[in-house]
Backbone:
C-alpha cells in the first residue's frame, strides 16, 4: 500500500485521445477517483490533456475546458502514458506510433487498428520497451485479453467461441424476444452507445472479425489480421429467419470462432443457429461471452458487458492501473509471442452443418429430386420439415438441416439446389453450431 503523503507520490501524466462514449467515462474516473487510484498504483494518475475533434461539443460528463484541445500531438508529447479512445485507423495509427516510439505506454480499445496494424504497433512497443495494452478491444468489460495472454500461456487453446459484438447481440435478442424489426432494434443499440460511429462495422461483422483476429493472435501465438477472418454479418437477417429458428428450438447469434483446423487455424464470424440451451444461447442484450476450450484447463466461460461507456472504461482503467504499476517498477512491456505462425485455414475446409430453407413447388417427385442433389454431393440430411409458405400458395417451405460435412461441399449442394427448376427460392442458409461440450451445465 502506498503510504507516502500525497505531495510525495510520483505523478504519471495521462494523455487521453478521445472523450466520446468511452473516453468521457475514463476521464470522469481519473478526475473523481484520483486518490483511490494513487493508493492502488503508488503513482498519481493525472489527466494532463484530452484530444477531441470539437472542444465545444456536448459531452456525457463535464470535463475541465482547459484540458480539451484538438492538438492530439501536444497531448501525446505532454503525457507519460497515452490512452487512445478515438477509434479508426488514421490519424490514430500515426499517433499511437508517435507515443510508442517515444517510449510511452499506450492503452487502446481500438480493435479495428489492432486487427489491421497490430504487428506494426507491437514492434514499435517492443523497440522502445513501452507497453501496448488493449483489454477493452475485445468484449468490452470482460477480462479476456489478459487471461488469454497470461493465464492460459502454459496451456494449449483448442478453440474459442464467442459473442463479441454487443450491438448485434442486442439486435438479434430484440428480434428474438420481442419480434422487433431489425432497423428499430439497431437504432436503440445506437442510442445506448453500443454501436460503432458507423454501425456498418457492427452489422456487417467487421467489428467482431477484428476482435476475433486480436484474440486469435493471443490464443494461437500467431499474428492475424482481419483479412484472415471469414466474415458474414447479420444485415440480411429477417424476422422470419429468427422466428423459424426459435420454433425449431434455436436462437440466432453472431458467433466469433477461432479453432485449430488441421495444421492451421480457422477464424470466422457468421450468424449461426445455436440450441437455446447452449451456454451462449442465453447471452442476452448487449452482453458478450467467450467460451474457451483448452487442453488442460478444459472449458472456460467468460461473460459480461461487451459494450457501453462505463463497462468499457472499466477495462481501460484496469490496463491503465497495470501500466502505471509496471512503469513505477521500471518494467518493460510484454511482446506478443507469435512464434507459432499457424496459417489461417479457408472456410471451405471447416466441418460444419447447415440449416437451409427452400421455397419449392409443391408437386410429386420434388423431394426425390432434392434428395438426389444431396446424395450427389455426399451430403446427408439430418432433419426435414415441410410447411405452408405464408407468402404464396404456389410453393411450400422445406426446412432442412444437414449432418456435418465439409463446408465447401455443403455450399456446393446449396448452389446446385438453387439451380433446380423446382426450387423457386433459397430463403435462408444458416450454419448450425452443435454446441458439443458447450451446453448449460456441461461438465457438472
Ligand atoms: P466515440 O465515437 O463515442 O468517441 C470518439 C472520440 O474521439 C470523440 O470524443 C471524438 O471527438 C474523438 N475523435 C475522433 N476522431 C478524432 C480525431 N481525429 N482527433 C481527435 N479526436 C478525435 O467512440 P467510442 O467512445 O464509442 O469508442 C472509442 C474507441 O473504443 C473505439 O476504438 C471503439 O471501437 C472502442 N470501443 C468502444 C466501445 C463502446 O461500447 N462504445 C466498446 C469497446 C471498445 P468529438 O467528441 O469532439 O467528436
Ligand atoms: N460496437 C461494439 C459492440 C462496441 O457493439 O460490441 C464494443 O466493442
Residues:
Amino acid at each position: 500500500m502506498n503510504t507516502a503523503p500525497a505531495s510525495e507520490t510520483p505523478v504519471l501524466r495521462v494523455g487521453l485521445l478521445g472523450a466520446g462514449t468511452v473516453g468521457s467515462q475514463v476521464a470522469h474516473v481519473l478526475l473523481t477517483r484520483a486518490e483511490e487510484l494513487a493508493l492502488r498504483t503508488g503513482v498519481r494518475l493525472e489527466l494532463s490533456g484530452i484530444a477531441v475533434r470539437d472542444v465545444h461539443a456536448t459531452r456525457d460528463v463535464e470535463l475541465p475546458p482547459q484540458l480539451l484541445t484538438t492538438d492530439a500531438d501536444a497531448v501525446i508529447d505532454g503525457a507519460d502514458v497515452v490512452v487512445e479512445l478515438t477509434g479508426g485507423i488514421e490519424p490514430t495509427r500515426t499517433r499511437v506510433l508517435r507515443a510508442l516510439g517515444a517510449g510511452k505506454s499506450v492503452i487502446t480499445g481500438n480493435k479495428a487498428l489492432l486487427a489491421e496494424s497490430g504487428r506494426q504497433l507491437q514492434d514499435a512497443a517492443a523497440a522502445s520497451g513501452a507497453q501496448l495494452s488493449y483489454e477493452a478491444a475485445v468484449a468490452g468489460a470482460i477480462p479476456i485479453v489478459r487471461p488469454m495472454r497470461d493465464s492460459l500461456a502454459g496451456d494449449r487453446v483448442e478453440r474459442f467461441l464467442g459473442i463479441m459484438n454487443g450491438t448485434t447481440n442486442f439486435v438479434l435478442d430484440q428480434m428474438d424476444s420481442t419480434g422487433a424489426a431489425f432497423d428499430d432494434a439497431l437504432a436503440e443499440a445506437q442510442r445506448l452507445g453500443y454501436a460503432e460511429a458507423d454501425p456498418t462495422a457492427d452489422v456487417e461483422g467487421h467489428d467482431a472479425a477484428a476482435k476475433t483476429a486480436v484474440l486469435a493472435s493471443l490464443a494461437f501465438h500467431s499474428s492475424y489480421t482481419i483479412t484472415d477472418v471469414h466474415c458474414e454479418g447479420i444485415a440480411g437477417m429477417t424476422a422470419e429467419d429468427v422466428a423459424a429458428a426459435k420454433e425449431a428450438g434455436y436462437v440466432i447469434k453472431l458467433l466469433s470462432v477461432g479453432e485449430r483446423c488441421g495444421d492451421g487455424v480457422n477464424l470466422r464470424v457468421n450468424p449461426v443457429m445455436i440450441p437455446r440451451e447452449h451456454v451462449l444461447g442465453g447471452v442476452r442484450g448487449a452482453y458478450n461471452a467467450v467460451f474457451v476450450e483448452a487442453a488442460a484447463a478444459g472449458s472456460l466461460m467468460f461473460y459480461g458487458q461487451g459494450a457501453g461507456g462505463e463497462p468499457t472504461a472499466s477495462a481501460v482503467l484496469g490496463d491503465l492501473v497495470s501500466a502505471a504499476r509496471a512503469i513505477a517498477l521500471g518494467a518493460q512491456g510484454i511482446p506478443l509471442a507469435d512464434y507459432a505462425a499457424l496459417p489461417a485455414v479457408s472456410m471451405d475446409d471447416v466441418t460444419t452443418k447447415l440449416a437451409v430453407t427452400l421455397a419449392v413447388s409443391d408437386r410429386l417427385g420434388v423431394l426425390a429430386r432434392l434428395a438426389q442433389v444431396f446424395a450427389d454431393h455426399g451430403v446427408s440430411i439430418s432433419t426435414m420439415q415441410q410447411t405452408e409458405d405464408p407468402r404464396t400458395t404456389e410453393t411450400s417451405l422445406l426446412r432442412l438441416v444437414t449432418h456435418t460435412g465439409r463446408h465447401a461441399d455443403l455450399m456446393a449442394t446449396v448452389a446446385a439446389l438453387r439451380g433446380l427448376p423446382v426450387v423457386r427460392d433459397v430463403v435462408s442458409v444458416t450454419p448450425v453450431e452443435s454446441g458439443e461440450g458447450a451446453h448449460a451445465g456441461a461438465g457438472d
User: Anything to note?
Assistant: The chain has three domains: 6-133+310-328, 154-304, 351-432. The chain has 14 helices and 17 strands. Residues 351-432 form a domain with the Alpha-Beta Plaits fold (CATH 3.30.70.260). The longest strand covers residues 250-261.
